[in-house]
Amino acid sequence: MTRLTTSEFLIGILAIGYFAIVQPVPAVAQSIDETASVCAGCHGDKGVPIDKTIPNIWGQNRLYLLNQLHDFKVGHRKNEQMAPIVEPLSKTDIEALATYFSKKPWPDLQQPAASDDVKAKARAVLDSLNCRGCHQEHYQGDTARPRLAGQQDEYLTKTMTDFHAGDRKTYMGMVALMKSIDEADIKALGAYLAGFKIPGHP
């Protein structure tokens, strides 16, 4: 058996360390980027969805995103486009995606502020339902509730309508609240929240 000198041994250790560093190692970030690129097909590669009925997810609250992905995964929320995308995702993938999108900047969807009469109608409804109790003062949401301010008008209206009709039952509190108002109220809320600006934020 050949005995290594001290210098040869140290050179060998350094070589191993070098190759450990330079060898490509599959990274979670790379796979998440690839998965996120699939999401961009509908949600937009710059955070602007391709359709007004599709929600913006850039900068949305992490736990809310996590909960929605989980609900799609287990079938609590039904969507033909989302179902095949979330089906192969692991719990780790879902957590990574929620983190990825929550850290993106909220895009400016360039939605106009509601007219004064729509604002007055929407504010009266929001106050009566105490929407700030969950969605916070500027409708920015919290850890588990979504940001509503600046979200897509048609998506907001569709979501509230689905709760109103009982087609979406993931949050029974929302079902009860939306059933207590009419379609005209829902339309006003969608327009107002879509054009609502959070102070100091896009």
Give your account of this protein's structure.
This protein has 202 residues and is an all-alpha fold. The chain has 2 domains: 28-102, Cytochrome c-like domain (Cytochrome Bc1 Complex, Chain D, domain 2, Orthogonal Bundle); 116-194, Cytochrome Bc1 Complex, Chain D, domain 2 (Orthogonal Bundle), CATH 1.10.760.10. It contains 10 helices and no strands. Helix 6 crosses helix 10 (183-194) and helix 8 (153-165) packs antiparallel against helix 10. The longest helix is centred in the N-terminal third of the chain and has 17 residues, at 6-22. It is globular, with a radius of gyration of 23 Å. The chain starts with 5 loop residues before the first helix and ends in an 8-residue tail after the last helix. Keywords: Electron transport, Heme, Iron, Metal-binding, Periplasm, Transport. Residues 26-105, 116-197 form the Cytochrome c domain. Heme c 1 binds at residues 39, 42-43, 82.
Helix-strand string:
HHHHHHHHHH
N- and C-termini, Cα separation: 70 Å
Rg calculated over all Cα atoms: 23 Å
Number of strands: 0
Average pLDDT across residues? 87
Tell me the helix content: 55-70%
Query: What's the structural domain tally?
Result: 2
Task: Using the 3D structure, state the CATH architecture of the largest domain.
Answer: Orthogonal Bundle
CATH topology of the largest domain: Cytochrome Bc1 Complex, Chain D, domain 2
β-strand amount: under 5%
CATH class of the largest domain, named Mainly Alpha
Low-confidence stretches: 6-30
CATH superfamily of the largest domain: Cytochrome c-like domain
Binding site for heme c 2: 131, 134-135, 174
Protein name: Cytochrome C
GO molecular function: electron transfer activity; heme binding; iron ion binding
Keywords: Electron transport, Heme, Iron, Metal-binding, Periplasm, Transport
